[in-house]
């Protein structure tokens, strides 16, 4: 058995999810090899040499930032060189851009948004969700030598500490990417309030129904001394700016109290708020995923509760 | 400008669930069917491209006859033609990509648009696998698209509120994120007309399988939330109390 992890990095920083992949790999089928792909990978090596890493491989290729063709070619070369049984990547926007291509080309076993893994003899079994998280499934990969799994972020604890894992380099001739990085744009930047600094967030989602309700909840939040934040559908609809969005593609928040009104709790939303001190969820759907992470909950119409809250402040 | 949009008729679960006899999926009578949310944005984006650059929009799905309402919804929005390929439908995104690739190869296109993911399987894999099988460049999770001469400039939505501006050679496969546009509603007349359009049907080539669901089950819930009751006044009172305690 052996596991290959590809490090994720952005603007010169190794992303935390890389350390989660290491601990997931270590608990499944060590030894764990971590590969770093960048124009100059050396400065990133220290940050990936955490406890549980048995080997670091650098691939000096491409540009400073992620480009999908470069990562695809590098991963194919790494698989050919190391013959890992399992390849672990983050279920991230970067991996979505090349991992399925590698799996399709090499005929690998493949599953994404994986939140559980087990070995049965020599076989890897992955657990992932279907149907909006209402159902889980065990997925098998019969008849393949290598399985490529994209793991759900913030599921495994990040590996910490340091290791004295040997570092080697792999030379890969990489053709330039046909999709080229130009620049980054901070779409959540604004002169608006910073929701990550709030003690109390009143967060609203699809359940509020229409744009007019935003004004009402802004008023309520102000009365309560809370800050209004939202889930993705509200930003998609253009009712609030991206700077107010909680979740993987928005901000990660950790207020003392997080009030979720009309938010069902998509995985991407939960990843951005589950570390909050106290979570209170109000939703008319008793099966909503938000209740799995909430400390307090109420299955009741959010407008009725809002009306009663208005009277109390 | 010819654009092919790959769409999926997704399955949503109600409050109750029962599994098939072999335990590998939910029983069809416990699901509702609808056009995948991401795919309505992809279809709208293709229609906007046609309005700006001319050409045509073909919508394509991998599925049986029960998937046709998704195609007709896209036709009602304004797509010119619809096709479906059957024999590879299911939860294996890479197998679906193989099936779609056969049709896309025959049709040819300047752009192929897919939704980022389907709401029922959430693999976020079909578009990128399809690009590989077609030998095309691709960008996943696109929130902005401008087509130029032989290239497109796109925004790729990264985690944490950051966008990566990317130039991609065309033809290309792009997976489209929600919020990129405002999908139009179809009017009643268009819906009626879409019912009459003939949908081209073909059979999937033999495609390898990348995964197999061996068991589905309702996950065990954690300790769960402490419930605050069902009386709005009581719930509001408790919320105010908790907020006061935790911020004191």
Condensed summary:
Chain A is of the alpha/beta class.
Topology:
The complex is a heterodimer of chains A (313) and B (248).
Chain A: E1 3-6, E2 9-10, E3 13-14, H1 17-28, E4 32-38, H2 42-48, E5 55-60, H3 68-82, E6 86-90, H4 93-96, H5 99-106, E7 109-120, E8 123-130, E9 135-140, E10 147-151, E11 167-169, E12 179-186, E13 200-204, H6 212-224, E14 227-230, H7 232-236, E15 257-261, H8 267-271, E16 278-282, H9 290-293, E17 296-298, H10 302-312
Parallel strand pairs in A: 1-4, 1-6, 4-5, 5-11, 6-10, 7-10, 13-14, 13-15, 15-16, 16-17
Antiparallel strand pairs in A: 2-3, 7-8, 8-9
Chain B: E1 2-7, E2 9-13, E3 31-35, H1 37-53, E4 56-62, H2 68-77, E5 81-86, H3 93-107, E6 111-115, H4 126-134, E7 138-147, E8 151-157, E9 162-169, E10 172-176, H5 188-196, E11 200-203, E12 212-217, E13 226-227, H6 232-247
Parallel strand pairs in B: 1-4, 1-6, 4-5, 5-11, 6-10, 7-10
Antiparallel strand pairs in B: 2-3, 7-8, 8-9
Describe the overall structure:
The complex is a heterodimer of chains A (313) and B (248). Chain A has 313 residues and is an alpha/beta fold. Chain A contains ten helices and 17 strands. A nine-stranded mixed sheet of chain A has the order 9-8-7-10-6-1-4-5-11, with helices on both faces. In chain A, α9 links the parallel β16 (278-282) and β17. In chain A, α3 packs across α5 (99-106). The relative contact order of chain A is 0.12. Chain B has 248 residues and is α/β, with parallel strands linked by helices. Chain B is built from six helices and 13 strands. In chain B, the strands form two sheets. Chain B has a nine-stranded mixed sheet with strand order 9-8-7-10-6-1-4-5-11, with helices on both faces. A two-stranded antiparallel ribbon of chain B has the order 2-3. The longest helix of chain B is centred in the first third of the chain and has 17 residues, at 37-53. The interface between A and B is large, with 106 and 88 residues.
